[in-house]
């Protein structure tokens, strides 16, 4: 299943008994489901050069056990158990309009190490690359510092995610 979300539009996805709502309303992106909560919020500025330099300003707060996504090629990708903070995460967010590939929300751990969540003006794509995320609150700059190849790129829009 592919759902394309435009600003102000809400898309509901039901999978495996779990109801997920994804909405993009200008300054905010919200994902809800599974009785778990993760928040990413902040006004973000960026510099992004040759996948080597990433400068992010803002605030990142994560409160969740699992984040589960199925990639566009059908491969199930998942976050670590959230007790772990050593797995890689890569976010590329450059626009509010995106497509969400897959409605299967599953969970394992290490498989997320080789996955990239790309939120841009084009449909959302998930590809194989490293990205890193800690279970502790941190700034976007701190999160970017965890990534080796300029993995974190976000627009100036505030970003909020609830899982």
From TrEMBL:
**What's the protein name?**
Type VI secretion system tip protein VgrG
């Amino acid at each position: 299943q592919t759902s394309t979300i435009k600003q102000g539009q809400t898309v509901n996805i039901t999978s495996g008994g779990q109801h997920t709502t994804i909405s993009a309303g200008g300054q905010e992106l919200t994902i809800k489901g599974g009785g778990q909560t993760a928040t990413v919020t902040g006004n973000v500025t960026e510099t992004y050069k040759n996948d080597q330099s990433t400068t992010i300003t803002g605030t990142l707060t994560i409160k969740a056990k699992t984040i589960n996504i199925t990639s566009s090629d059908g491969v199930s990708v998942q976050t670590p158990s959230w007790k772990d903070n050593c797995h890689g995460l890569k976010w590329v967010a450059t626009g509010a309009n995106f497509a969400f590939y897959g409605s299967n929300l599953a969970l394992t751990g290490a498989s997320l190490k080789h996955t990239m969540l790309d939120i841009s003006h084009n449909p959302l794509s998930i590809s194989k690359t490293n990205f890193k995320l800690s279970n502790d609150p941190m700034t976007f700059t701190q999160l970017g510092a965890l990534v080796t190849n300029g993995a974190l790129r976000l627009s100036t829009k505030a970003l909020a995610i609830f899982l």
